[in-house]
Specification:
globular; 231 residues; three-stranded antiparallel sheet; five-stranded mixed sheet
């Protein structure tokens, strides 16, 4: 069937109009784009991570959002304060795989964002948000299986809620490479969670300086070990 200009325009407008929820919007985008592809699968993975972290209510998939710079090559985002919608976006950015390569022969993919600091500080002052308690100590959660990415970030959030800085290694590289990364950053503790740990609701923690292992221990015991370490 030959598409008229009016029909094409209607399909474009339909494509950029969000539905009532993330999943329905993504299903429509996938259908109008001709089926699943790497980009829509990436959005599906992101939504699964949001569900795992129980934060999906804070995200809206809006295909009408575009950034004013042409170097973006993937997902872009804008951040708004729910209590002050009129103040506009306070943080925006996205994926750009080729930007740094303009200045080097190396391939350097990246993700970045910019924060409207004055706007954000004014908003926080208006909302009278107090200063958060400073985080102490530091752990890195190693990536044993990329399918557990969402659960690793949920675990990181649990550590942060206990006042401990936590980051997640983003790729399931060889374990030695992940340990090497942690040691270069002088991170004192590595957290290891694979299928066995998740099944038993335990974690394994390794003190990188002393090489001491604490295998399949409770989360509360791990918190005690990290906090009792000398900083």
């Amino acid at each position: 069937e030959e598409l008229t200009d009016a029909r094409r325009a209607g399909m474009i407008l339909d494509y950029i109009t969000p539905e009532n929820d993330f999943k329905t919007t993504l299903e429509k985008m996938t259908s109008l784009a001709g089926g699943a592809a790497a980009d829509t699968e990436r959005l599906t993975d992101m939504h699964e991570y949001m569900e795992t972290l129980a934060i999906e209510e804070h995200f809206i998939l809006d295909p009408s959002i575009t950034r004013g710079l042409d170097y973006y090559t993937g997902v872009v985002f804008e951040t708004f304060l729910t209590d002050l919608p009129a103040i506009g976006s306070v943080c925006s950015g996205g994926r750009y795989n080729n930007l740094a390569s303009l200045y080097t022969n190396e391939e350097l993919p990246g993700v970045g964002s910019s924060i409207g600091l004055d706007r954000l500080m004014a908003a926080l002052e208006s909302l009278k948000k107090g200063k958060p308690e400073p985080l102490t100590h530091h752990v890195i959660i190693l990536c044993m299986d990329k399918s557990y990415t969402g659960r690793y970030h949920e675990l990181a959030r649990r550590f942060r809620n206990e006042g401990i800085t936590a980051e997640v290694f983003p790729e399931d590289k060889k374990i030695a490479a992940q340990f090497n990364f942690a040691e270069k950053k002088k991170i004192p503790f590595a957290v290891i969670c694979g299928e066995d740990e998740f099944k038993s609701e335990t974690i394994t923690i390794k003190q990188l300086l002393t090489r001491e292992n604490h295998e399949k221990i409770s989360f509360s015991r791990a918190i005690g070990i990290v906090k009792s370490a000398v900083t």
